[in-house]
Structures are given as C-alpha cells and as structure tokens.
Amino acid sequence: MPDIRALNTLTQQLKKYNAAYRAGHPLVSDEEYDNLVESLHTQDPDNPFLNQVEPEIFSGKKQVRHPVPMLSTDKAYTKEDLQRFVDRVHKEGAAIGIHAFRFRVTPKLDGLAGRDDGTTLATRGNGMTGFEINSALTKGVIPVGGRGLGLGELVIQLSYFQEHLADKFEHPRNLVVGIISSDTVNTFAQQALEDKAVRFVPYTTLPFWEGNDQELLASIDDIKKDLQDRVDYPIDGLVVEVTNEDLKTSMGATAHHYRWQIAVKDKGETAETRVKKILWQVGRTGKVTPVLLVEPISLSGATIRRVTAHNAGFLKKRHAGEGALIEIIRSGEVIPKLEAVITGSDKISLPTICPVCSMPLIWENDFLVCTNTSCPAQIRQRIEHWFKILGNADWYGAKTVEKLVNQGVITLEAIYALTQEDFENMGFGPVQSRNLFQALAISKNTPVEDWRFLAAFGIADLGKGDSRKLLAHHPIDTLTDITPEEILKINGFGDITCQSISRGIAQIRTTIEHMLDLGFNLERTPLAKDLASIQSPLTGRGIVFTGKMLQGTREEMQELARKLGAKVQTSVTGATDYLVCGEKVGAKKIATAKEKGTKVISEQEFMEIVKPNHV
Questions:
Q1: φ, ψ of residue 127 in degrees (nearest 5)
Q2: Which of 61, 108, 248, 563 is catalytic?
Q3: Which of 186, 257, 342, 491 is deepest in the core (most CB within 10 A)?
Q4: pLDDT band at 18 (very low <50, low <70, confident <90, very high)
Q5: What global pTM score does this model have?
Q6: Would you call 108 a catalytic residue per the annotation?
C-alpha cells in the first residue's frame, strides 16, 4: 500500500523543482529530477503529475494556443530501455500490418522548447498553450534557417558559452531563460545577443541519422558521438523517433509524451558520500569557487576526496554544507560534480573576504568575486594560464609558479628576466634551475601563432578564437592602441565585448609591449585584406578536418588552410566544400558529408592541393 503522505511530498517536490527549472534556476540536475519522476511512476503510475507536460510560466507574456500539442519526451537511460522502445514499435507495427520501418535520430538540445509559425514565436508552456515571445527576436535571437520552420529550441552556441560565459552562469539554459523572461537583459546576455550566439534552432535544421532497428541498436554509441561532433549547442542526449507516419498515428500519445518517440540519455556513474569540509579557491579572474572535501569513496576506479560545487550560490541553494549527505557523479571529469543533496545541511560559511588576500568579496550573479587584481592567487592563475595557452614551454606547473610568486616574482616581465642563478637562489635545484631557464628561451624561440601569444595574456573576453579574429584585422604590433570603435568594425564583436577587450589590452599595455620586445618567434595571422587577394584552390571554400592527422596536428592543418583563404569550420554543413579525413574516421560521417554535397578528401589529397602555395 503506497504511503499517500510520502507520495504527496514527492509530487510537491517535483512541482517545486520543475518550476525552478522552467524559470532558469534549477535546484537539482536533470538526472536527479528524472530519477524522482521514475520513482513517482513506479509508486503511483496514475498520478496526475505524470500525465501532463511539466508547465512553465512566463509572467506578463501573452498566452497562445498551439495548433497541435507540444508534448514532452519519454526517456531511455540504458540500451535495454531503448530495446523495449523498439519492441513496442514492432508490436504496434505488427498490429496494423507494418513490418518495415525506419528510425531517425537527432541531437536532443538542452534549451527552451518553442514553436515558430512565421508570425508567432511561442514557448511550449503546458503543451496545449504557450507564451508568445516574439520579443526574443527583437532582442537579437537569431532564427536559424529563417522564420516559420515549426518546432525547435532556444539555445546558445556551446563554444561561445564555454569561452565567454561558463564562469558567469551555472548552465547555458539559465542565460536563455533570462533573456526570455526579463524586460531588460544583463550585460553578459546582451553581449551574447549582439554576437549572434543565441539562436532559435528548428529541429528540422539539425543533423540526423536514419536507419533500421538493428542498425540503431548496434550503433547508438557511434551515432551519439557523430551527432555530438556536428552540433555546437548544449545537448543532453538523443531523440529517437519512428519515421513512418501511419505508425506514428497508430502509436499516438499520452497526455505527457508521444509514444513513437523517446529521448536517449546517459547516466554517469554515481555514488553517495558526506561533506567533511568546504574549501574556497580563487581563479584567474577573481572568481572564488567552492570545492567540497568529502569522505573518501571509490568511483569509476578512483578514490574520490574532492568534489566541485561550481559557485557559492549553487552551494547555498542546494544546502550542501558540512555534514550533508550528497550524491556525486563522474562522467569523464577528473573531479566529480555534485549531483544531488540527499540530506541537506546549512553549515555553510560563505566567505566575505578573499581566502588568499583578505580583500572584500562582491557578488556577481551566483559567484563571489575578489576584485583585487594583485591577489596572489589570481597572479598564479594568470601566469599558469600564460604557459598553458602558449604551449611551448615545459616545467612551469602549478607548484613552480606558486614558488615563484611566493618569492615575489609576480609578473611575466620578471619571470623572463630570471637567470639560472636566480632560480638556484630561490631554492630550485641545479638541474631544475637549468631546465626552467632553458624553457624560457625555448618559449621565445619556438614558433608560436600570434593569436595564441595574445590569448595567453588572459584578457577578459579575448580567447583564442577572438584573438585570431582580431589579429586578422590589426597586427599585434599595433594592437596596444586599439579603440573599442575599431574592434566594433570587425564582424562578430559586439559593443560590450569591444569595450571590455580594449580596456583589458590597455591595462596590460606595457606587459604586451615588453613581451613583444623580447623577440618571440611569432607566426603572424594573415590580414583579411591580404587573404582577399589570395587565389588558391581553397580561397573562400569551407573546410572541415576530422580524424588523426599524420603530417601535423589538426590545428596546424587548420592554420595552413586559413592562410590560403579557406573558411575553417568545426562541423559539416551545407556550406562545407571539403571534408579532410585523417585516420580513424567513421563511415557515417563520410556518408553524411557526401549527402550534403561535400567533397571528401584524404590528408594527402589536401596536401597536394595546397602544395603549390605552401612553402
């Protein structure tokens, strides 16, 4: 006999979690939420909560009725779950005399579902009625493929989010929901809109795989990897659906989901442990983030003692204080993540001063921030960032950099002025001192791209991609005087980013000029105006590199293609002219390229094309 009180508590908990998720401030992970839904389904399969689309509310927005219900998606976490779905399709097909059918697989975008009929852009809402959000388009959301392409998802480009916003928002969906729900958006979201990184992506524009049930079940892992590689948006699984319209009609739907469709999602390995202590760490940009020290536990073949908790707001909302019993998940990360709080604890002492320099902290969204740029922790992180991004000098790991900073060596100018004797006087051994001194010379003499050199300074909003874009219009020697107006003229830079980059360059102007004077062996980015005059077989052509390259790294191949006027892309689209294949490239990726009219060539064939222009 089910415990009615416990079921009511669980239902209310799910309603609370769903409301927070729809508002862009999730209190639990997708997996924890799905597990609770499954628990409710097992105990009370007829519960009304399970037979409706989880509602979302946008206050002040006009409600619109969908011409056809926008339902949610049932989920499969294992291959056995997927097999059961296929079996149900077979059973239904046999009942109506359909024995041959196919399945289509697309990436499952992790954003805000919506419908665009060409006149109205609306959210899913409760599945029957949604909320009109045409204001999103006015704010700058880009409709991929144009208007009126039906169902889709509001998302932000994943590469953009990771480079510019990962340290400012807990999840990409939070940013998207904030844009929709607010009359005015914050500066970070405004910049993303100006940079055309926020999109409404119709499902019909997504790459897909199609095949029979045997191919589906045998290749689901390969299908997932291939589709993930071709999408630059946050995804949280795959959507598998039957393509036969008669079979779809026959299978129908519940009030919650279509029976002819299922979402395939992964479960990372999880374990339960207890929080012993909370440490606070300071990053390169001043973000003060929590790391949970937990009771040691074995997970994915490793003994786990530390768990990341992302930010202070995240920790506070989940009540993950000392003594809390938590579930952690490890899906390939070196440090596992906090997945769920089983028994909470409010023993959370949020710092008010920096744990390193003791200067006051301020709040930026959910993050605590140390604004003291002279904070030793920030200095260490900036120096480590320099050597990591530059990528051509060994020996400068975290412990070495910490020792240098503790000895008062806190600038790049000071580091590159050190002699072997200086290192020895600071307590490094003779061999290590020689290696450290020689590594500095190597870093100056080894050829390095100028965009990598620029990105290594760690200037806010100026990662590797934007450094390359900037230097294609302004040589690095002239960059220290660049104005926001000059940056704004370059396609892809928005007003807020231009202000931030110009300000960041000005702040370290003397350091940039000093490092340039040291004579680094920089490989210059070709200027866009010069590329326009290049006439090679690759000029203006879209090109994608895949697989393991033998005659250089993939990055080196991409740089060579850029120098010859090619448009280097990360995934095959209708605008891709060449797919250059190294070793171990999947047959399906090649087949997809051919379907799109993309010419598939080998690495050697690529080298033959560029040979007349490549010295």
A1: 100, -30
A2: 108
A3: 257
A4: low
A5: 0.55
A6: yes
